[in-house]
């Protein structure tokens, strides 16, 4: 008997993952587990490490493409309330990694704290936001982080200060098994001004991105000083389709997935965009989304 068998109550085998992603694509997880509290998460993480079973943390699936074949090993979702607590004390906010960034933004704005409102409209969890240092023209989440709590492969909890997290453009150097929470330092501000900025960010985002369609946000990172969307647009690729996957007419760095889309089609469209942009501009685009599976 393996230690994996002791998690039957929180495990679903061969669970389709597509419904848990924004692209609504991809095959099943061998084991999908939803630990009920931090101690149970520690047992799962330890067991995975001891048995050499691969471990993946699924946030809100908004930056993720899962291959049609699915993924072996354990996929964890931090959906229990234990992982999404938000605490506000003065100008500091501590947020559980499983909670949505949008909830933390709302709580901060309600408390008259400024900083996070520039991330209005960015989907996903706090864990995903920290791992990928989400941001936009008005700043990145990493600039607001004081420290994070993580769980190591052996199930221990460690606090890591921001200066050791290696935040860069859409990246961090976090290699712990799980991000558990983030402590953010915001600033006190005028609630009316903060709400005004929040609304403005929303309006700008809605006007420039196809937010009502299925997508994973920007597929490619912007090359230094350039816009990946503009490069794709200039290469004449807006509206290009493979199967039921389509380069958005509104924002060329978004790929929209329609009803019968598959991950294989989306990967072929990604390859096509890369090779056309390489031919047209001599620039190699790098992926912003994460791809799971072999
Ligand atoms: C419509 C749309 C608009 C978007 N706009 C923006 C934008 O303006 N700026 C921007 O930067 N991004 C944007 N994104 C991308 C996406 O919102 C972010 O990357 C988001 O932070 C991903 O969070 P998630 O919880 O969905 O992570 P997922 O997609 O579930 O996972 C992403 C990665 O994070 C890891 N991960 C997640 N949680 C944890 C955890 N607790 N511990 C360890 N690893 C973890 C996963 O293993 C995976 O490798 C957009 C996406 C969409 C669909």
Descriptive overview:
With 294 residues, the chain is an alpha+beta fold. It has three domains: 79 residues, Uridine Diphospho-n-acetylenolpyruvylglucosamine Reductase, domain 2; 125 residues, Uridine Diphospho-n-acetylenolpyruvylglucosamine Reductase, domain 3 (2-Layer Sandwich); 65 residues, UDP-N-acetylenolpyruvoylglucosamine reductase, C-terminal domain (Uridine Diphospho-n-acetylenolpyruvylglucosamine Reductase, domain 1). The chain is built from six helices and 18 strands. The strands form six sheets. The protein has a five-stranded antiparallel β-sheet. A four-stranded mixed β-sheet has the order 1-2-5-3. A hairpin with a 5-residue loop joins strand 11 and strand 12. The two termini are 27 Å apart. The model has no long low-confidence stretch (mean pLDDT 97). The protein binds flavin-adenine dinucleotide (FAD). The site of flavin-adenine dinucleotide has 32 residues, from strand 3, helix 3, strand 9 and strand 13. Flavin-adenine dinucleotide binds next to strand 3, helix 3, strand 9 and strand 13.
């Amino acid at each position: 008997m393996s230690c994996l068998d002791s998690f039957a109550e929180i495990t679903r085998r061969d669970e389709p993952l597509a419904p848990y992603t924004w692209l609504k694509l991809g095959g099943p997880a061998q084991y999908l587990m939803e630990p009920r509290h931090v101690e149970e998460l520690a047992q799962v993480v330890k067991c995975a490490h001891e048995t050499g079973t691969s471990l993946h943390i699924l946030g809100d699936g908004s930056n993720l493409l899962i291959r049609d074949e699915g993924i072996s090993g354990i996929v964890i979702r931090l959906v229990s309330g234990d992982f999404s607590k938000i605490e506000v004390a003065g100008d500091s906010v501590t947020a559980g990694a499983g909670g949505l960034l949008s909830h933390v933004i709302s709580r901060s704005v309600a408390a008259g704290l400024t900083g996070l409102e520039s991330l209005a409209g960015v989907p996903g969890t706090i864990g995903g936001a920290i791992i990928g240092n989400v941001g936009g023209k008005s700043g990145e989440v990493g600039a607001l982080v004081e420290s994070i709590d993580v769980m190591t492969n052996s199930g221990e909890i460690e606090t890591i200060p921001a200066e050791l997290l290696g935040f860069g453009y859409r990246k961090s150097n976090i290699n712990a098994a799980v991000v558990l929470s983030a402590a953010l330092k915001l600033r006190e501000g005028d609630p009316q001004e903060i709400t005004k900025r929040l609304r403005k960010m929303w309006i700008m985002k809605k006007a420039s991105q196809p937010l009502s369609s299925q997508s994973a946000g920007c597929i490619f990172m912007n090359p230094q000083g350039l816009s990946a969307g503009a490069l794709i647009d200039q290469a004449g690729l807006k509206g290009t389709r493979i199967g039921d996957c389509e380069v958005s007419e509104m924002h060329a760095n978004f790929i929209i997935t329609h009803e019968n889309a598959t991950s294989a089609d989306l990967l072929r469209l990604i390859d096509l965009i890369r090779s056309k942009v390489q031919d047209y501009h001599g620039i190699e685009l790098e992926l912003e989304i994460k791809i799971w599976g072999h």
